[in-house]
Amino acid sequence: MTEGSDVMATPEPLKVVPLRHPGRWAAMAVIAVLLAMLVHALATNPRFNWPEQAKYGFTPAIRQGVLTTLWLTVAAMVVGVVLGVVLAVMRLSPNPVLRNAAWIYIWVFRGTPVLVQILVWASLGALFPRLGLGIPFGPQFVEADTFSLISGFSAALLGLGLNEAAYMAEIVRAGLLSVNEGQWEAAGALGMRRSQILRRVVLPQAMRVIVPPTGNETISMLKTTSLVAYVPFAELLFQTQAIYAKTYQVIPMLLMASLWYLAMTSVLMIVQYYIERYYARGSVRQLPPTPWQRVRARLERRRPRVGEHS
Amino acid sequence: MTDLSTTASAPAAAMVQAEDVWKSYDNTPVLKGITLQVSPGEVFLLLGPSGSGKSTFLRCINHLETIDAGRLMLDGELIGYDERSGRLYEKKPRDVARQRRQVGMVFQQFNLFAHRTALENVMEGPVQVAGLAKSEARDKATALLDRVGLADRRHLYPNQLSGGQQQRVAIARALAMEPKLMLFDEPTSALDPELVGEVLDVMRQLAADGMTMVVVTHEIGFAREVGDTVAFMDAGVVVESGRPDDVLLNPQQARTQAFLSKVL
Ligand SMILES: Nc1ncnc2c1ncn2[C@@H]1O[C@H](COP(=O)(O)OP(=O)(O)OP(=O)(O)O)[C@@H](O)[C@H]1O
Ligand SMILES: [Mg+2]
Fold first, then answer.
1. Do the Cβ atoms of B62 and B7 come closer than 8 Å?
2. Domains of chain A
3. What's the ipTM?
């Protein structure tokens, strides 16, 4: 019986020699050397021409290019996501006409190069000199000159957005299919209609599956916008090219543009992190702290509390 | 309970009326001529071995499945069809939804909306389907959660609740539509034994309040205590039905006897 109370006492913590990780140290050494070489090259090779980059990096033309790239990315993604959701719902519809129409759309827009699609939109005027709304083979109600309708921006937006929709449709469809059938049945049993079930029950839960690849698509889109420099449309790469066409400083300017793209994708990654957290509600019991919350918690622990320093 | 059983035996219009209901999946018949009747206020229990078609029949009552032959009526109305001059017309989705509102369903796997709190789960039907104002629905949902003993858990998400608590929320969610009929498909089968009681208590209370219920269950004790009628199903037919004590303690059919000897 007396042994019982011994068992209850807090046991001595184990004294353990931690496992050594020589591999980690070796990897660290190799990477440190490589990093040092890179920094050395970047700092000492005058052909990187950092002053030139700094000189042009924030000119009005480049700033306008950055904003245009961002704006085009957002606009094309909005078109892609909205149309993608519509296409995904069509593909899962009980209506065979809608189902097949969506399939054909995806087949065409996913199966041809996006640069070709952009160029086709830009030169649509060569194909259809005039665009109009009316009855096929019958009278037209409104009509306009194609080149006046399709500007550089709308060609870029149509090319990127409509292509993106085909990819987003598949991402959204995968998300919708990931939601348990029991959710459809429970909502149906309450008397909810198909559209209500999609909007209120299934899509919100599908978001967890939809958001990560959509973030991926957005980052990809940010860089794909550079293709529309050939429309031509004055986004970041176009402005960069315009500069090095005059200065012949090709590599520094491309490096500067890349740094801008990198900065923008970094911001997008942070936005994605918080969106993913929002849609994790109800699927993880306890949300992990954000990096920012973690830093704050650590600072708070370090700060000596009042009355603690004796 | 006594006055309820007299209601059950009164010749009121049946809440559920099944006449020779057939249903096949890929040419394999699953329901082979089910005929039964559930009166208002009655607690009707369906028993039977796995695969005998209990869930399928329950889902037909809610038109989650369509029937191939026979007639299935809810409170005097054909389920899923309109009959005009001797022909059946498929109901519009809107009308199917309207019919489903009258029937609450509780699933073995709870099927709570995972992205909504307990309270939001219960509010969803009243707000989205019945068109109640949010504040009104919130009061109603809070009262219902209180009734199933979960008022203090109303702001938790389903995955923060135990199985028994989730199932009670699911019952509250179904009740929020003020159904005429409640369907339960093995509501306690996914639960740990010590959580079964809390769900059965809620159902017992519901029965005492006069709710018409069709319950698929293997809880023999519950069936004897609460049930008005027990129907034993096997291979898509009702083998035997009657008062719980008759069917459960003194089964006449060999198949019923064989099943009960395994379950009891
Ligand atoms: N969607 C389906 N497609 C094909 N067969 C099905 C389908 N749903 C059910 N079945 C079959 O119908 C039969 C009856 O199934 P049901 O789920 O109604 O049985 P049950 O009595 O509820 O069984 P349990 O006690 O295991 O839940 C089974 O043989 C099953 O395999
Ligand atoms: Mg079943």
1. no
2. 51-131+143-282 (1.10.3720.10)
3. 0.90
